[in-house]
Design goal:
heterodimer; A: alpha/beta; 7 helices; 7 strands; globular; B: mainly alpha; Non-ribosomal Peptide Synthetase Peptidyl Carrier Protein, Chain A; 4 helices
Chain lengths: ~230, ~100
């Protein structure tokens, strides 16, 4: 078993997940990433898995591979997520299924299987990702925000159920960052969101990593079931 | 994997869980040991631990991936988690299904 921490990051191919993978590699951790498509990131301390977080069998195989390779899992970051902006009157039911599947069901599956591995050492940190679309009730993001609302409620209860195993569960809610998720959103809309934040600027990857660093450090063992939104949303 | 081995896995996991908490001494474990109800040697969290531990031991030591707390288990009138014996029987049924599906 390695003496370095082992970190699982879903959706690590690009965006926030990719940045977090590099962040934790630079910190000396062993990082296990996954996405549905191949990832270009190559490093001796990084291993990529092709896995769809909505598929129970694939998630179980992913965690079985981590157990076999390392025998431990310290941190799981449920970053994989998809968004779709649309007026609800124009939202296809299939879009709702797709968003809930990835954002909620995927978070549930990875959390459940990660916790099984973490509990063996009675230590673990699960970090889930929400969005400021939830507290700001952004028009056009009803389904996306609802999926993140599910993630928040799930995490708060997860925190209670896993506390006895030494596992903490928390949520970070980023503001818009220059990622693929917001490329399709009009500039003016992004600017309006930024203008309504307490701190009026776009988010940075480092802002997200900073909160996650706090959640996952061993001394944060008395911090669980909490949600931190960035930018003062 | 035969039923004797399955009972061994369940019993070993149960002893491990019991050794982590106060209650029944490990030597009291046999096929009739109650896992749920008033006479159970486990509390509800202990049962969760046992089920997860059995799943993991089957995976890591025997390469068998089963989900014990599936919809079928939750919908059975008589819970398969009543005793070591009923849990072993239930695992054997799952393994047979798995074997049947794996055959061409």
């Amino acid at each position: 078993m390695p003496d370095r921490e082992v970190i699982l990051i879903t959706g690590s191919r690009k965006g926030i997940g990719r940045h977090l993978a590099e962040h934790f590699i630079n910190r000396g951790a062993l990082v296990e990433g996954c996405s549905r498509e191949p990832c270009e990131l190559q490093h001796e301390n990084y291993r990529h898995h092709l896995a769809d977080v909505t598929d129970e069998a694939q998630v179980k195989s992913l965690l079985a591979a981590i157990q076999k390779q390392h025998g431990r899992l310290d941190v799981a970051i449920n970053n994989a997520g998809i968004a779709s902006m649309n007026h609800i009157l124009l939202t296809p039911a299939a879009t709702v299924d797709r968003i809930m599947d990835t954002n909620f069901r995927g978070t549930f599956l990875v959390s459940r299987e990660s916790a099984k591995l973490m509990k063996q050492r009675r230590y673990g940190r699960i970090v889930n990702i929400s969005s400021i679309a939830l507290p700001m009730h952004l028009a056009g993001e009803a389904i996306y925000a609802a999926s993140k609302s599910a993630v928040v409620t799930f995490t708060r209860i997860l925190a209670r159920e896993l506390a006895d195993f030494g596992i903490t569960c928390n949520v970070v809610g980023p503001t818009p960052i220059e990622t693929d998720l917001i490329h399709a959103v009009p500039r003016e809309k992004i600017q309006r969101i930024v203008d309504s934040l307490a701190i009026r600027r776009l988010g940075r990857y480092e802002d997200v990593a900073n909160v996650i660093d706090f959640f996952v450090q061993p001394s944060s063992d008395y911090v669980t079931g909490q949600v931190i939104y960035l930018g003062g949303a | 994997m035969d039923r004797v081995e399955v009972v061994q896995v369940v019993s070993t996991c149960l002893r491990d869980v019991l050794s982590d908490e106060e209650g029944a001494a490990p030597e009291q474990v046999d096929e009739s040991t109650q896992l749920i109800g008033l006479s159970s040697v486990l509390d509800s969290l202990g049962l969760v631990q046992l089920i997860v531990d059995v799943e993991q031991r089957l995976q890591s030591e025997h390469g068998i991936s089963v989900t014990l707390a599936d919809e079928r288990a939750m919908s059975q009138k008589h819970s398969p988690f009543r005793t070591v014996s009923t849990l072993a029987d239930y695992i054997c049924v799952l393994l047979e299904d798995e074997y049947a599906h794996a055959r061409p």
